[in-house]
Amino acid sequence: MKNKVVTEPKRYSIDEVFNLIGEDILMEDHVDRRRGERLEVDGFSVRRMSLRYMTFYQKGTKCVTCGKEGTHFLLRGDKGSKVRHFELYADDGTLMTKDHIIPKSKGGMDNVSNLQTMCEPCNIAKRDKMPEDM
């Protein structure tokens, strides 16, 4: 049975997380899986390379559809695990996500150049639509 996902209560500012990750990683266009660098954050192991972090840094933390703004990060992970990842949230608790502009199901790549910031409700509504279908 899969462990329950837990969210750590401490809020991390956007600048704090971006400073921890480092501009050398945040300015990349894709994730290099060979670079398995991790950070120690409050007793948890956090991977540095993430398309989400790169997208939020390069494209901003505001939903391209509705304008909702991500304001802080929380650490999330499986209960009992020392591994966590940063998730971006708006003040009202809405999860901010990365969205493929050209969906992967239609040939879109896993590169920041093909990603944009969306809140979870807008991303769910978009589904796998192409930009011209929006």
Can you walk through the features of this model?
The chain has helices at 14-21, 23-26, 51-59, 120-126, and strands at residues 5-7, 12-13, 38-41, 44-47, 70-78, 83-90, 95-100, 115-119. Strands 1, 2, 3, 4, 5, 6, 7 and 8 form an 8-stranded mixed sheet that branches. It has one domain (5-133). A hairpin with a 4-residue loop joins strand 6 (83-90) and strand 7 (95-100). The chain is an alpha+beta fold. 21% of the residues lie in helices and 31% in strands. The longest helix has 9 residues, at 51-59. The model has no long low-confidence stretch (mean pLDDT 93).
The gist of it:
This protein has 134 residues and is an alpha+beta fold. 21% of the residues lie in helices and 31% in strands.
Pick out its properties.
134 residues; eight-stranded mixed sheet; 4 helices
The low-confidence runs, each spanning 5 or more residues with pLDDT under 50, are none
| Portion of residues within helices | 10-25%
Instruction: Label the structural class.
Output: alpha+beta
Query: Rough shape?
Result: globular
**Elements, N to C (H/E):** EEHHEEHEEEEH
Mean pLDDT: 93
Major beta sheet, specifics? Answer: 8 strands, mixed
Radius of gyration: 15 Å
How much of the polypeptide forms β-strand, as a percent range?
A: 25-35%
Q: What separation lies between the terminal Cα atoms? A: 39 Å
Quickly count the helices: 4
Number of self-contained structural domains: 1
What's the number of extended β-strand segments? 8
Topology:
Blueprint lengths: L4 E3 L4 E2 H8 L1 H4 L11 E4 L2 E4 L3 H9 L10 E9 L4 E8 L4 E6 L14 E5 H7 L8
Parallel strand pairs: 4-6
Antiparallel strand pairs: 1-5, 2-5, 3-4, 5-6, 6-7, 7-8
